[in-house]
């Protein structure tokens, strides 16, 4: 954790150490926000659990009534606007290599959940910024999963870095379909001093859509070929309530949809949802 503190600041507060220039404070009983908008989230955890956005004091008070700051630490962090990107990559001998980048499609506020990922070409500014973080943290050899935001001015903001493969079917399913690379297989080869190669074998334009809507599974099965669905997992996707965290999405399943470009992928998924909702 020492490296993480170097990257994010030695104590919670104003983070002014080049790589994360934001305000971040632990919410205490008498905490009063000084500025908005804010991201409210647990200090520890995964799957975007309890991540919410507030734009004013009334919204903050409403969120505060829904969480227990005495049970666990919650953070109030400056909301950064821009395009959110997920990154799957690897660090070998201190050098970061991107295998796949994904533009995230996020739920409307107040919740902050990813409901789809679209494969995109590597953004050089993102790779360069992650390389700086890798150097600051002293990471030598590791798989790396990162979430970043490309701000309107083109600069890059790191949401989080994790020395592991990405979850939510991304490294295990989506990355393999889009690039032909198995991160875990290549990593095991590297660890055993066997030949390895994290370079994509091909590149397909695709989108992974998590089922954040209710539908009939039989109807989905009838439509899957029409909408170029190449991989899917269907669970009980009826009456599961509002999507508020990663767990509520993962319980439903997903569909991987191919297209000639990003716009066609999004068009296919929108048409699929529209058709399923009519059924």
What descriptors fit this protein?
disordered N terminus, 13 strands, globular, five-stranded antiparallel β-sheet, 279 residues, eight-stranded antiparallel β-sheet, 8 helices
Return the string of H and E elements. Answer: HEEEEHEEEEHEEHHEHEHEH
Number of strands: 13
Strand order of the largest sheet: 10-9-6-7-8-11-13-12
Give helix % range. 25-40%
The span between the termini is 51 Å
Structural class: alpha+beta
Mean pLDDT: 86
The helix count comes to 8
Largest sheet, if any? 8 strands, antiparallel
Shape: globular
List low-pLDDT spans: 1-16
Describe what this molecule looks like in 3D.
By secondary structure, the chain is of the alpha+beta class. Helix content is 28%, strand content 30%. The protein is globular and about 55 Å long. The protein starts with a helix and ends with a helix. The model is unreliable at 1-16 (pLDDT under 50).
Compile the SSE list and pairings.
Layout: H1 2-8, E1 14-16, E2 21-26, E3 38-42, E4 52-54, H2 57-64, E5 74-78, E6 83-92, E7 95-106, E8 114-120, H3 124-137, E9 142-150, E10 156-162, H4 170-179, H5 183-191, E11 206-210, H6 217-223, E12 229-234, H7 246-250, E13 253-258, H8 262-278
Antiparallel strand pairs: 1-2, 2-5, 3-4, 3-5, 6-7, 6-9, 7-8, 8-11, 9-10, 11-13, 12-13
